[in-house]
Amino acid sequence: MVATFSWDDGHPLDLRVASLFNRYGSKCTFYVPKNNSENLPTLGVSDLKTLSNDNFDIHSHTLNHLYLNKLSLERQAFEIKSGKAYVEDAVGKRDDIFCYPGGKYNAKTIDLVRDAGFLYARTVTMGFECAYSSNNWLMPTTCIIGPLTNFQILKHSLKRLSLRRGVTIARINNAIMNKTWKPGSDNFHQSRFYHFWGHSWEIEKYNLWEHLESLLQILISADVEIVSNQEFYDRKIVCEPSRSI
Ligand SMILES: [Zn+2]
Questions:
Q1: For the chain, what is the domain count?
Q2: pLDDT at residue 236, as a whole number
Q3: Owning domain of residue 14
Q4: Chain segment 96-137, per-residue pLDDT in tens
Q5: Taking the model in full, what pTM does it have?
Q6: CA distances, 52 to each of 30, 144, 198, 207, 231 (Å)
Q7: Region of residue 103 (left: phi > 0; alpha: psi -120 to 50; beta: else)
Q8: Quick one: which of 66, 97, 112, 150 has the most CB atoms within 10 Å?
Q9: Three-state helix/strand/coil letters over 150-168
Q10: Neighbours of ion ligand 1 (CB under 5 A)
Q11: CA–centroid distance, residue 31 to ligand 1 (Å)
Q12: Which of 138, 111, 133 is nearest to 122 (CA)?
């Protein structure tokens, strides 16, 4: 079994996430904008340089954390390319993975992301156990580490026209929030791939640091390999929806 974690928005509390993951020798991946248009603080270049090491990968989340589906093509291209250049300059490494702010994109966005040179892009689609999807630029996830409202779950169900998907997401999310989630708790698959994601500011806001630590402990004690997003995607395992918790 393999798991990966991604943290969005480049909030300064990402440093606390990093110190928790360091304590367990586990890898994780951060998606950072230079500025956050939603009035949240962001890590500076010197923080990104410190954060970027063998265990922690930094990738792009646009320049200003704007929802791309609402922008002109030119502005989308600017946000995508400038965000990539910002991360590459800050950490001195090629940035191959993009993450859509708010999971928002339109028909043209995916082309722009691909044309900017990204090999993969992560969405906020949930309810999947996978390392790979049929579209490199629409990578789904398993579940957010944070509270989900019934309305948000309903939106996910309607988007996919799948009530069952909504039920699956709700079950996984409840289990994480109740610290009862366990890997491989059914017999459908021998090999499982989990992608957890979240925002460090939400972990703080909803007091979920213990939940996160307990999730890490559960994965480690079940011998689940914890890898970076890049290593996860490079496995090229085809995605499939989670069937249960
Ligand atoms: Zn974001």
A1: 1
A2: 73
A3: 2-241
A4: 999 999 999 998 999 999 999 999 999 998 888 776 777 899
A5: 0.93
A6: 9, 23, 18, 26, 15
A7: left
A8: 97
A9: HHHHHHHHHHHCCHHHHHH
A10: 8-9, 101
A11: 8
A12: 138
What digits encode the pLDDT tens for the residues 42-86? Answer: 999 999 999 999 899 999 999 999 999 999 999 999 999 999 999
Q: How far is the CA of 8 from the centre of ligand 1 (A)?
A: 5
State both tokens at 109: 């966005």
Q: Residue with structure tokens 């630590």?
A: 213
pLDDT at 244 over 50: no
Query: What's the CA-to-centroid distance between 140 and ligand 1, angstroms?
Result: 15
Exposure string for 168-201, b = 16+ CB within 10 A, e = fewer? bbbbbbebbbeeebebeeeeeeeebbbbbbbbbb
Residue 220 three-state SS:
helix
* 13 alpha carbon – ligand 1 mean position (Å): 14
* Ligand 1 center–CA 225 separation, angstroms: 26
